[in-house]
TrEMBL record:
The protein's annotated pathway: Glycerolipid metabolism; triacylglycerol biosynthesis; Lipid metabolism
Organism expressing this protein natively: Perkinsus olseni (Perkinsus atlanticus)
Catalytic activity, EC: 2.3.1.20
Keywords: Acyltransferase, Membrane, Transferase, Transmembrane, Transmembrane helix
Name used for this protein in its record: diacylglycerol O-acyltransferase
Residues that span the membrane, as ranges: 6-27
PANTHER family: O-ACYLTRANSFERASE (WSD1-LIKE) FAMILY PROTEIN, WAX ESTER SYNTHASE_DIACYLGLYCEROL ACYLTRANSFERASE 4-RELATED
GO cellular component assignments: plasma membrane
GO MF terms held by the record: diacylglycerol O-acyltransferase activity
Catalytic reaction(s) noted: an acyl-CoA + a 1,2-diacyl-sn-glycerol = a triacyl-sn-glycerol + CoA
InterPro entries, per the entry: CAT-like_dom_sf (IPR023213), O-acyltransferase_WSD1-like (IPR045034), O-acyltransferase_WSD1_N (IPR004255)
Lineage: Eukaryota, Sar, Alveolata, Perkinsozoa, Perkinsea
Domain of life where this protein originates: Eukaryota
């Protein structure tokens, strides 16, 4: 009988896992492409599909659908954008991206185009009196699940009351099935504008700061602490 040490078993398990992942991905892509005609130009990846189904983690983890939503809170120093301008921006720019005008279609592993009613996606609230009230309202918003029968995004406009300590606030919600963080940053670059409609120029404030020269002692201490992680 041939004996296997722990390393051999680990190596064998790793190889089997990689093969299973490759084969599974190939089968998933084959199924996706074969049914793409009814679900839009691009299908969902395996991860996107199961994030939508909220079954990426064991049931014991008790992961709610809202946990798979990206929430972005933005404060406006010079006043909240008018609701009609927000709607215009959404209609002309945001909805041109397929996934913001579609709902997941699990049966075909893709997306199904739908008519978008902005009343179900853009919400304007009464002026918020103070920061505590704003935090409570934002907490309520981000803990709510997105309706699965509508495109998986929302915009919440939260104006500050006169004399309030906090600024006007907008909360943008987007399901991770629609896009990840990097994709949303790229989307912002294409969609966001200044109040007069011009493209936004992003400024890297860190680049303006002079690089801090580390001393030899600091480098030695840092490298020593870093090495401890591998001991």
């Amino acid at each position: 009988m041939m004996d296997f040490d722990d390393y051999s078993l680990l190596l064998a398990a790793t190889i089997v896992t990689l093969v299973a992942l490759v084969v599974g991905r190939m089968l998933h892509q084959r199924m996706t492409h074969s049914k793409a005609g009814s679900s839009g130009p691009r299908g969902m990846s395996w991860m996107e599909e199961h994030m939508f189904l909220s079954d990426c983690f064991p049931k014991e983890a008790n992961i709610r659908p809202a946990c798979n939503v990206i929430n972005c809170e933005v404060f406006f120093k010079d006043g909240l954008p008018a609701a009609d301008k927000v709607e215009k921006l959404v209609k002309e720019d945001l909805l041109s991206f397929v996934r913001f005008s579609a709902v997941p279609d699990v049966k075909s592993h893709g997306w199904k185009m739908v008519d978008v009613d902005l009343a179900n996606h853009i919400f304007t609230y009464k002026p918020v009196e103070n920061r505590r009230a704003l935090d409570a309202k934002v907490d309520e918003i981000v803990n709510a699940d997105l309706p699965s029968d509508k495109p998986l995004w929302q915009v919440h406009l939260l104006p500050a009351a006169t004399g309030a300590e906090q600024k006007d606030c907008v909360v943008f919600r987007c399901h991770h099935t629609v896009a990840d963080g990097i994709s949303l940053v790229q989307l912002l670059d294409k969609v966001a504008t200044t109040p007069d409609g011009k493209p936004i120029k992003f400024v890297n404030y860190k680049a303006k700061k002079a690089a801090v020269q580390s001393s030899i002692l600091r480098k030695i201490v840092y490298n020593f602490l870093y090495a401890l992680e591998w001991v």
